Amino acid sequence: MAIHEAGHAVAAILHDIPLKHVTIVPTAADASGGPYDGHVKLKPVPARYNYGGFKDSPASLDFWHRRLIMILAGPAAHKKLHPHAHWFGYARGDIGAASEIIRDIHQCDASPVTRAHYKYIEVLATACIENNWKEIEAVAAALIEHSTLSEDQVRNAMNKSRYCIAA
Predict the structure, then answer these.
(1) CA-to-CA distance for 122 and 124, rounded, in angstroms?
(2) Residue 149 burial (CB < 10 Å; 0-12/13-18/19+)?
(3) Three-class SS of residue 51?
(4) How many domains does the chain contain in total?
(5) Which of 105 and 53 is assigned the larger pLDDT?
(6) What's the distance, CA 3 to chain centroid?
(7) String of b and e for 122-138 (b: at least 16 CB within 10 Å)?
(8) Residue 167 — very low, low, confident or very high, per pLDDT cuts 50/70/90?
(9) pLDDT of 56
(10) Residue 147: which region, alpha, beta or left (left: phi > 0; alpha: psi -120 to 50)?
(11) Is the pLDDT of residue 36 over 70?
(12) Fewer Cβ within 10 Å of end Cβ, the chain: N or C?
């Protein structure tokens, strides 16, 4: 769980998506009745990215593209740690959120374009995880130690991992 949430948090920092905190403390049940095992609490979406729809503004589309990478970075981190785990079981909410945003961007339900867009974002999220694994491990370790981290604490854990010298 810590790796999954650290994946989201590191991707949020790297893609300039402001967050309030990341936690591995279980919270209220989700819509399907199952508990949330952890989450990243993001700051509200700036109004300029919602006004006028997704396709009307290049800046809005860029914002949602970065947010999609952040959403799928959690499952990508989990998949890197446990490649044979059941994908949908631990990432149902993330997959659903990403799919909904992509459908909104393209103004349609499942189509070859929306499926290709999802796969493209999934590849970008996986690359983000691969390129920043040391930082993700450091944030996960900090989460295990403290349970909840602010954005500043996530940044500090990431920075410390960049300057650690192996003994």
Answers:
(1) 5
(2) buried
(3) coil
(4) 1
(5) 105
(6) 11
(7) bebbbebbeebbebbbb
(8) very low
(9) 66
(10) left
(11) no
(12) C
